[in-house]
Queue: 3 jobs
Job 1
Amino acid sequence: MSDSIENISIQLKVNGKSHSRTVEPRKLLVELLREDLDLTGTHVGCDTTYCGACTVLMNGAAVKSCTIFAVQADGAEILTVEGLEKDGELHPIQKAFGDCYGLQCGYCTPGLMLSALQLLSRNTQPTDKEMRKAIAGNTCRCTGYQNILKAIQTAAQNMKGA
Amino acid sequence: MLSQLGDDAKLLAGGQSLIPLMKLRFANPAHLVDLNFISGTSYIKDDNDTVRFGALTRHAEIEASVAARKIPILHDCATGIADVQVRNRGTIGGSLAEADPSGDWATVLFTLTAEVRCLGTAGERTVSLTDFIKDAYTTALAHDELVSEVVVKIPPKGSGGTYLAFKRSAPVYPTASAAVQLTMDGDVCQDAAIALGCVGLTAIRARDAEAALKGQKLTEKTIARAVEASRAVADPQSDMRGSADYKRTLVGALVKRGIEIAVRRARGEQVEVGHIYA
């Protein structure tokens, strides 16, 4: 057995910006985002792969960043909630969550918006069932989900023209 | 590498079970070997009579595959495992190698003819899935072996199947599940395979239930016999998901519903099925 575990150098792109870091192999992706890159919009909820608060897109796919080691994101492109707005303009999904009151405390919201983004980037006209399935891995304890579904539907309509 | 690191090394596939288990201190490996950077381990190859899955094929890739459209029971399974995020990471090889009693794949693949290719320093060997799953969290893998491929035989024409899992919410394991694959000739059941999940230390093949259907016209009476035999062979534990009695009743209901859907699919009907929520 080796005496010590060596840190590992990784390179990744987060919200379009390249980063090089040397990290402990045990560091989770969500810890890298929050602690090393100061991107605290990605939240830690349950820390046991249940609640989806830590959802980010990794190479376009929604993943729970508390259940991936930072070293596994070497070479990957990550999108967090901070990367949604462009040039000071809210992303249509962000706008729709606000307009439809798709949040109360807001803790689960970044994760929900990224799950919504994976859905809408692959399916521009999701049915109610498809929307429910897409956010089944994101737990919200405030809203009862109705306004979240309205927000996703509104975003889908607004993104169609874009 | 595994033979050098010894017994304390663990392989990391999708990590959707192993990482949570490590956080909860249920698993405490001294070494983790990440398989995700090895190329060529994620594929779905459709031959004439088999479908071969690379060990690191993600559930989401199976969900979207042509193979899963051809074999609906595979689609039922892949599309319902946990949630989108877990399906984007979790792998078929990792799921089988973990051998969690509540895992979905073993239950489904027990009803198809499935083999696991195990690769180690001594070479490659093929093990039938029934021999591969030894016990809860225990497989036939030697400590210096890994799963390289999962081979599934394509069911014959006139065969239909379904996988039904009953869950309290998407990210959790099912309370109980049932896989049913039937080959029909008109109203008569030529062949039947039924497996039960989450109601024993491993997935359980319900042989008596299969015998109750084979060669029979599927009437209310024969189906009731199969359901009764399924309940009898289930060996559930009472836990936070439900009492043993509740799970036994539930798994019977799933088998009944599964037989009805399998028959319709064997006739060529398109039946959309998803995991069932409480």
Note: Chain B has two domains: 2-8+40-153, 159-277.
Job 2
Amino acid sequence: MKTRIPLLVTAAALLVSLAACSSPGTAGTGDRPADTTGSAPGPSALAKADGVTDITIWHGLGAANGIAFQSAIDRFNEEHEGKIAVKATYQGVYADLLAKYNAGIRSKSTPTVLLGGDVATGFLTDVGQSIPAADMAKANPNGLQLGDLAEQATNYYKVDGVQQAVPMNVSTPMLWVNRTILAKAGVDTDDLTTLDDVVAAAKTIKAKTGVAGYSMQADDWYIEQLTATAGQDFCLPGNGRGSEPASSISINSGQAKENITKVADLYRSGVAVDGAPDGSAAISAFQAGKVGMIVMSSGILGALKTGAPFDYQALPFPTSGPEGKSGPVIGGSGLWLSATATPAQQVAGWELETYLTSPEVQEEFSHATGYVPINTKTADSASQQQYLRENPITERFADQLAGTPVVSAAAGCVSGAMTAIKAENISQIVAAFNGQKSVDEALDAAAAKAKDSFAEYQQQLGN
Amino acid sequence: MADTTAGTDGARPRSRRRMPATGKWLVLPALLLLLVFVLRPLVRTVELSFHASDIVGNPTRFVGLANYLDLFTDPGFLRVTLVTIVIALLGTGIATSAALGAALLLRRHVLGGGLFAVVFSLPFAYSAASASAVFAGLFAPSVGILNTTLARVGIDGPAWLSDPVAAVWAIALATGWYEFGFAFLVLTAAVRAVPPETIEAAQLDGAGGWRLAARILVPIMRPSIVFLTVTGTISGLQTFAQIQVLTRGGPGGATTTFVFQLFQLAFGNGTPDFGRASVVAVVLVVVIAAVTVVQFRLFGRNDA
Amino acid sequence: MTATVTSRRRPRLRAATVVRFLVVLVAAAVVFFPVWTSFVSAFLPSGVVVRDGVLPWPGSLTLRNFVAVTASVHLVPQYLVSVAVVTLQTTAQVVTGALAAYALVFPRWRGRALAFGLVLLTLAVPGESIVIPNYELVSAIGLRDTVLGVALPYLAAGYPVFLLRQAFAAVPTEIWEASRLDGAGDLRSLFAIVMPACRPEVTTAVIWSALSAWNGFFWPLLITDSGARTVQVGISQLAASEASDPSVLFAGTVLVVVPTILLVVLAQRLLVNGLARGVLH
């Protein structure tokens, strides 16, 4: 009676009003800022600012890499004390970083600079929350010189001819070998140039020593490598870098399919062992002498150096395609500058990007991690040349990067659907590795699913 | 205003004195909080499930049941449902039955009984995330400590995280292990609460070991067992942390549960699709409600 | 007759005792294995346990893994955040739960059944289903990356209300009425009379709330960056980033788990007694 109605009314009113209440970010409240080409701020915006300009940078560098990154940030803060203060936050692995960034877009709290994973390039371009690097470079002629950066690296972040982001930490895939085991099996490291060589050697290692011959991280990045080094575009048309967005993948045809099948056979015949989705098992097995060769990123150098020592070497990723048209795809992440930050913050962020890609910082950062310096001027310094002499493995990283042709195949696929596609691909391919389905089935299923993912993405884009 | 009906919801018959009617407002803090943070979001989630979403996750146009049809006609969805239920039941089953066994075994004095009780309680100190981190090291392919240890005694362990069936067991074992701690504490309390006279009477009747346990102890402990089974299943249906840390839904979707798929659709695929993710959320609510009702019907209310 | 029964029992008893002991020993070893492995691996460089087994030579023990953990993950602030969140959530859930349970049991009012129905409904709604709207709301209020933001959606929970309502309903009316007749207000009645009478259930509610607050993972992962990160999120990020160095990961789990292990070891008796009458009736 008396007490019932107020309660019911309260409850009903609350529910209705809260449900109808449009939360921030409902359709049409302008998440996509206006096109900012040509309106990038110049140095005066920062010079005019009073006091300290606070900026934030989010990244996905954990463990040792994160520590090295943080010390670079700390030095930047020291050098710019009183003018710029940077707060760096580790947001988890690239996938989590992207999820947090998305959530940030919805709640209008994105960082000034995002060190986003390479795979997110398509998405970050489409979502339009960043000022293209080309525009900032033009407005700040005394800052970062894009021409100083290795073209193989900047090419990855160029979409439709426009430089969107600046690469910061670049990794390259290598063939790591345990020389002791290879010697025991009678395999010469000089003979390991093509994929066929490597496959044969893996079988020999297993036959002659009983130790597994091959392993790799169960990540789609390595499937991309098997495609790119075959001179094949991973996604069509044109790896998504033209005016038309990507709508299909090519792994179930051509040389890429052959490559994947050869590697799958190694797994199915017991020559290769599972490396785990994060690569930890591949590295652990390699360190424990349980596998003779692994295909892993250059970034694992740090882990190998701190583990128990053994005789290992890094060789270039095996080739399987026409020279001059094929090569491995880079990994790592790039710097994206927020279009919604204040002009002073944007210029401060560009200062940070200039700093992070400078020869000195790249040199030091590459020593502490396994990333390759992307500034071509890094190799000019005496200290770097000394370092390369003392650490010949890192020289191989740099050589591989420099020797990669600037072609479509080696540039990597760009699409906002890449994250979803990568997950589905590797899921299918691992099933093929484990013998649960045939390689043909797996690749066809992956290609079909990818088609759907591309279509769904375009649908979401068009909404 | 004397109201002397004894309510079926356990209400007290009102006394003859008239009490000031302030007590009922005490329900407001909890009720308002639940309305705002549980029920209203539920309504919003249902609302989101009827809309498509753009690449940032904002709802766009109304699509009616299209998202639902999409999901239900996806053959993978049936598998997700199955995997979710299997993992929930396995994990809870392992934890509860093992804890029951341990509690019963320790009922009578055993050499070092106190130490064993502490050891059995240890998994309670682990959360799902930290237990998963530990089991990640145990189950890792090629170098997992479990398999290498088993190899030393000549047992060839399965490929825990790469084989679909073994992966489900891996998740169930990790879950069962850390839930075992709490289950053991609850069941030990339950066993201790059995009146000694009942036990003595049964023993004088000739019931020993097994019979005593099965015929006398377990039925008396039923409310605790039901409590553990119900709460364990409900939380098992929401398994996420273990999958996030151990298998990331693999291999080939073999360990993708509702919540993991929700996470993938909403946050993991790079381009959030809150419309589809909300469908999974709604289905999850329905399944949990259904399971709860079924379990209450089967076992009776756990406050009986 | 009793004499023969006992003398027939003794030899059987001995064999059974030994068997029981062995079974318990094996079970304890199985349960303890993950704990032992993680502790041992934490003190050794990566790969040693794989190579040499789980009973290693003490010679190669090292603290380097722990140093690496503390360098890459800020465990202490995360721990403090987790403790703050647990305290806040548990207190709030138990207090609001007790208030609501009181209101749902003692005073009679129309709409009481509806209110209880709404509470029951929330029991079926799992946290992950409502994460997205809650994220929008908490962000809009500006509480992203704060302790309050982590705890806010969970300041009230259906289960403690449900549990305490069952408990309060079992309290004899006379006790409550007596206190009211003595002139005590609702709050006095609740906190001085009713709750002490339901100590076991209150204990269970506290343990349940604390445990679910401590174990929270999905929501804290979303709503925090680095400011209010909880220890569960920290440890899973450690798992993701320490892919190449399993020993460091183990060291991280050890650091996270040592305080709660101490709690369990010291309070095990207390927990059992507290639960003893909590879930049984």
Note: Residues 439-462 of chain A form the longest helix (24 residues).
Job 3
Amino acid sequence: MTLPFELVVALRFLREGRFQTWLIVGGAGVGVAVVIFITALVNGLQANTIKRTLGTQAHIVLRPPEEIALPQRSAGAGAALLPSVQARAQRLRSIDQWQTIAARLDGRAGIVAVSPIVSGPAFAVRGDANKSVAVQGVQPDRYTRVIRMDDKLVAGDFRVQPGEAVIGKDLATDLGIGVGDRFRLVTGSGAAQVDDAYVVTGLVDLGIRDMNRRAVYLGLRTAQALFDLPGGASQIDLAVDDLFGAEGLAQSLARETGLTADSWMKTNEQLLAAINAQTITTRTIRVFVSIVVVLGIASVLVVSVVQKRREIGILRAMGASRGRIQRVFLLQGAMVALAGALIGSAIATVMIRIFGRIARNMDGTPLFALDIDPALYLWTVAGAVLAGVLAAAAPARRAAHLDPAQAIRS
Amino acid sequence: MSVGEPLVELTGIHKFYGVGTEVEAEVLHGIDLTLAPGEFTALIGPSGSGKSTLLNLIGLLESPTSGSYRLQGREAGTLDDDELTRLRATSLGFVFQFHHLLPAFTATENVLLPGLNALGPVTPERREAARQLLREVGLGDRLDHPPGKLSGGQQQRVAIARALSLAPPLVLADEPTGNLDTHSADDIFALMRRFNEERGVAFLIVTHDPRLARRCDRIVELVDGRIAGDRPNAAVRESAPA
């Protein structure tokens, strides 16, 4: 009784209706556990999917604008447009003034890494084996800041000095070579054919078999020579700090530079749609669970107000104001919700732990990391308490407006 | 409140129930009544005569349809709900027929509740005062019992201690002994009488028991919502033990 009136009475009322109290605390607890677990699960799943997707992709790729075939117009009056214009074949070109653009992007807010690249097709040849490959000429220190290559290396180093190459591990198998062995790269045809030998310095696993069969990394200058783009860069890869702001940034970069700018969000539209659908699903679950919890708390409190009519009347007779009575019931709502939220948080933590044990890859590593995010817990608990107060609003009003004389007689 | 001013002053009180409906009924037909500080008054009358309604009006639990009610000189009709609540907390104590203790609280806690409401969290001094009050009503060995473990008479003693806990000038008792055997009823009545004499607390006691009514200073009789009799009961004073 050393606490304020409202708190003392609310606690006693809850203790008195022990069975009802535990019932509703349990209900709120299960609701909170479901919300936290589902949210953590989906957040983990999404973070994992995005991480895997972006493990081999730049956040934004800048390329030269597409070449357009302009319709020819014959001179003079009575001119006619040619009825059909065939689109131009897009050849490998360098980004105009790419050094200037790259330097400008380097200092720009929101961009954390800039990596100029020359990429093009070639054939990897060793003996009778002849494989079609995708060559990327990179500056290793810049490139590894966009795509983390160190955790993809399975052998050797990511080193691409002149005459050196890093290749996909399945390509190495196809060619029957390993670190330290040589192979040849052939580009062009006829008189323009270039045919150089390279030493393998490293093998990478990009996580996708098809890419592992085709990936060849060279130095930027080597690739410039190989594709006859002296001093050029066919694309600029960017890493940004706000993942989901990538598309917006890409659009403004396209406007500013006149280049084609594709964000990961645009090149992975399906993935993004799936992620959005998941997010909407979680939100829907959260909303409905909240409604159920609110209705549950409200119904128990409504019953409690009816059961405690007489006590409410006595409290009013001894001088407790309407506001006091109202707060007694609001507090009950808040307290059962808080108790439920704490229990629910504990249940959710256990569920997350168990999930981490059960859901594993075939090699025994966790399927994906489920974070125990304090912010998620805090927000959910706060939301639950708010829901409790909300649920108590109508019963509390009813209690406050009971006619004390009638209530005492009942 | 100046000296000599009445504690309760009712003038022309009318009370209707179900106003505007088919069952509209006038329960009180113009009541004029004053109670002086320290008066020990019985309110008697047959069932349905309006006793409880009158008690609720004086207790500020209901408001009259018309007429004026002054409690300690304050016109109740001009006060809003919060002000009425405050006035009720400080000026009035209630004892009901079915004792109406809060079952979730011990005897001591029930006595502390009005103070918790009016004065805030309980101090050790107030706790001790509540225990002392319970000892005075003869429950020194039942201080921490919940109401469910007390007899009817004991519960009513707790209710009296609760009504007196903030030392109000007036206690309203609605058939406080109606639920008790004769022996317990006499005890409870004697207890109220003692607080009236020792502390000068005024009591207004609704009762059906003519035996008890005769032991009050004044008997007000209500019939069909009208005061049918209001007489001092001098015999009591004279025959009461000094």
Note: The domain at 8-239 of chain B is CATH 3.40.50.300 (Rossmann fold).
